[in-house]
Amino acid sequence: MARILQLDEAIAELVHDGDSIALEGFTHLIPVAAGHEIIRQGRRDLTLIRMTPDIVYDQLIGAGCARKLVFSWGGNPGVGSLHRFRDAIQNSWPVPLEIEEHSHAGMANRYAAGASGLPFAVLRGYRGTDLPAQTDTIKPIECPFTGEQLTAVPALNPDVGIIHAQQADRAGNVQMWGITGVQKETVLASKRSLVTVEEIVDELTPRPGAVVLPQWVVTAVAEVPGGASPSYAQGYYERDNAYYQQWDPIGRDREKFANWLETEVQRERSGR
């Protein structure tokens, strides 16, 4: 049975220095509040995993939480680059950052393999690209039935998978709807999992197309209203486009970023 915890309690218990962690969500339901709590608790040497790292990963990298990023695309959606990410790669500030780059299809298949208990996934998508020459976790493999040359990628099994959803009930069953990415696979593939939710309700109301994660696959649930902002949570609030635009000048400048860490992230602690 999933345990209902406060966000700070859940991060303190589940996320440790040196862990591999995946904070997943595609455009929608990004677990931003959980990322900020990881920053507040000063976690270090993390391997950050995410198909599409955006500003919350820029913030984690700039705060010195990460030693490695496993990803398939990175940027500030609709605005431009992630400048804390760039600074870490180009100047090793605040610490050096190792990268492991895949395609979207490769990452999705890695999560699916991890969720299925398989050691690797096989796909065609890397043929004709230079990624196999750059990434050690992409290997050629021959189909035993046809002889076709394919590519294999290892399963992803993060130490901790973190997602955001709209609702959970008091037993820890989780329901999410709207645009979903690999959140289900992330939870199923991870050794430990945390789901932050907009609200905890007495009973989940069935919704067309919703994803339900049963209590026995979730380690902990934390009620965090607004926990996906500035991304959006369908049925609760819209995307804060201005925040993404405002992040660009903050992320570009080390001093402005340091001030953001001291003011905005710490202010969230007192406001939750």
Overview of the structural elements:
The chain is α/β, with parallel strands linked by helices. It has helices spanning 7-14, 32-40, 55-62, 83-91, 104-116, 131-134, 183-189, 241-252, 254-271, and strands at 3-4, 20-23, 46-50, 66-71, 98-101, 120-123, 139-142, 149-154, 160-169, 174-176, 192-201, 211-213, 220-223. Strands 1, 2, 3, 4, 5, 9, 10, 11, 12 and 13 form a ten-stranded mixed beta sheet that branches. It has a three-stranded antiparallel beta sheet with strand order 6-8-7. The longest helix has 18 residues, at 254-271. The chain starts with a strand and ends with a helix.
Summarize the SSE layout with pairings.
Blueprint: E1 3-4, H1 7-14, E2 20-23, H2 32-40, E3 46-50, H3 55-62, E4 66-71, H4 83-91, E5 98-101, H5 104-116, E6 120-123, H6 131-134, E7 139-142, E8 149-154, E9 160-169, E10 174-176, H7 183-189, E11 192-201, E12 211-213, E13 220-223, H8 241-252, H9 254-271
Parallel strand pairs: 1-13, 2-3, 2-9, 3-4, 4-5, 9-11, 11-13
Antiparallel strand pairs: 6-8, 7-8, 9-10, 10-12
Helix pairs in contact: 2-3, 2-9, 3-4, 5-7, 8-9
Radius of gyration: 18 Å
Q: What is the overall shape?
A: globular
Helix content: 25-40%
Distance between the termini: 25 Å
Structural class determined from secondary elements:
alpha/beta
Tell me the total number of β-strands.
13
Portion in strands? 15-25%
> What are the secondary-structure elements, in order, as H or E?
EHEHEHEHEHEHEEEEHEEEHH
Instruction: Catalogue the unreliable spans.
Output: none
Kindly state the mean pLDDT as a whole number?
Answer: 96
> Biggest sheet, in brief?
10 strands, mixed
Q: What is the number of helical segments per DSSP (H or I, 4+ residues)? A: 9
InterPro entries: CoA_trans_fam_I, NagB/RpiA_transferase-like
Keywords: Transferase
Protein name: CoA transferase subunit A
Organism: Saccharopolyspora oryzae
